[in-house]
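Internal QA ticket QA-208
Title: Verify multi-chain structure generation after dependency bump
Assignee: T.L.

Test input:
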Amino acid sequence: MIQEITRWADALSDSEKRRIYEAYVDTWEAKIGAFLQFDTELGLSLPRGNGSLSGIPFAVKDNIAVESFRLTCGSKILESFEVPYTATAVARLMEHGAIPVGKTNLDEFGMGSSTDNSSLKKTSNPYDTKRVAGGSSGGSAAAVAAGIVPFALGSDTGGSVRQPASFCGVYGLKPTYGSVSRYGLVAYASSLEVIGICAQSISVLKTVFEIMRGEDPLDHSSLPYPAYHAEGLQAKRVAVLDEVAGLDEPVKAAYERSIAALKSTGYSLVPVTIPSLEYVLPAYYTIATAEASANLARYTGVAYGRRTDWAENPEELIRKSRTEGLGDEVKLRILLGTYVLRSGFQDQYYIRAQKIRTAMRKDFERVFAASDILLLPVFPTLAFPHGNDGMDQFQQKMADRFTCTANLAGLPALAFPTGLENGLPTGMQFLAPPFCEERLFMAAERMRHIFPEIHPEGYREDWR
Amino acid sequence: MDMKELEITASLANLELQVDEMVRFSEGVSRMLEFFSTMMEVNVEGNEPTTHALLSNNRSREDVILESGCDMLKSAPEREDRFIVIPNVL
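Actual output:
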C-alpha cells in the first residue's frame, strides 16, 4: 500500500477513530458541501476484496453508479433514485479493497464548470468559500483538497475533472478515451467522456488508474490497455503553444513559471501552432449538446426517477416529468442538441463539427510527431466567485477551450497544481498521445519537485 | 431562433416552455447557434467526420442473455407486480 495514504485506512479502522474522522469531515462539509451523500457505515457494509487499496476510503461523483447509494446526477429528476448496480471502475477499486464512502456534488448531469448548476446543493472552494470549486466534478476535487479522501472519481467530458482539480489545487487525470470502462457512468456525451480521477498525489493517481483501466465486456467502447511503452520514459520534448492569448494575469504567471520549470528539469521546448484550436469550442458544444439531447431522452418519468404528480396520458406524463425535473442549463443543452440534429441542419452543424474534429486529430498527430507531451493551461481564470460576481454560463463555456481539445481527440491529459496566486490554487495540464499516461505521470512528478505542495487552511493530517 | 422554431424544437425534445422561459431560452439558444455558425469559416474539405476519437469499427457480442442480478423494476415510480403503471394510452 502507498505509505502516504495509510492514515485514511487507519481512520476507519475502529469506531473511536471513525468518530474523530467523521467530525473532521463534518467540519469541512459545513463549509464546502462537497457531498450529496456521505455514509461510511454503508460503504463499510459493501463487499470488498483485498489489495493495494485495502481499507482506503474514496468518493465517487454522483453520476457514477455505486450499488445501494443514490445516483442523483445533481438533478431533481433523479433526486431519490437508488441505483441497483455498480460501475465497473468502482467495482474494480472495491475488489482491491477500497471503500466508497460518499457521492459528490456536480453540475446537473455534468453540465457546467462551477458545480453551481447542481439542483441539489451548493459546493464551495476549500481555499475560499465565496468561490466555486469548479466543475462539473467540483465535489470530488473539493473533497480531495480538504483531505476528506485521498482520491475521488469524476467524469471528464470537456474538462470536468481537470478544471475543478486545478481550482482546488489537486491532480486531475482525464484518461485516454475508452481506457476506463464507462459502464455505470450516466451518459451525457458518449463520444467525449471518460471516468477520471482527482487525487492528492501522483502515486495514488497512478495506482487507481492502473486498477480501473482495461477492456470491459459491459462497455463496447472500452479498449484493452496496451503493454507499457518503455520509450515514454525518454520523453524529453515538450510542445508549447507559440502564442497563448486570453489568460488572466495570475494564470499567465503560473503558465510562464511552468515553462521555466520544464526548462530547468531538462525538457526541450518545441514551439507549435494548433490552428484548429480556434474552432474547437463550437465543434465541442455542437457534438456535446447533440449527444446530450439523445442520451437524456431516457428521462421520461416512466421506468425510474421522478414522475409528475398527475398526467392525462403517457405523452403528457413524459413532457411534464421532464419539464419539472430538469434544470435550466440541461434544458438549454437539450434544446440546442435537438436543433442541430433536426433534419436539414445536420450538415451545417453536427457533420461539420465532426469534420473539424478530424482536423484537430490531424493537428495533434503533427504535434506529437515532433514532441512527446504538450503543455496547456487548464482554465483562463482562477476559481471565480459564486453568483453574479462570477462568470455567466456563456462565459464559462468560452473558457473550456484548453480542456475540451483532449476530449475531442480522445487524448489523455493530466492537470497538476502549480502553487498559489492571490491565495488561490493554479494548475496547468500535460497532454500526450493515446495510452501514453505514463509520460504524463513522469512529467508531473518532475513538476512536483518544483512547485510546493499546497493545502487549504483547516487541512489536518491527524483529523484534529 | 424565432419562437416558432423554438416551439418545434421543444416539442421534439419533450419539453414544455412557459412564455417567460420561451424568451429566455430563445436568447440562450440563439447566442450559442450564432457561435456555432463560426464553424462555417473553416475549410473542412477532405476531412471525413470523426464520430469517436479512437474507435475504428463496431464491436458486437454473442446474442445471449446476461444475468444482471439486479431488480430494475423496483426503481419504477408506480408498478403492479411485474408491470410499470402509466396513464391510459387511449
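Spot checks passed. Residues 6 and 12 of chain B are 10 Å apart (CA to CA).
Status: verified.
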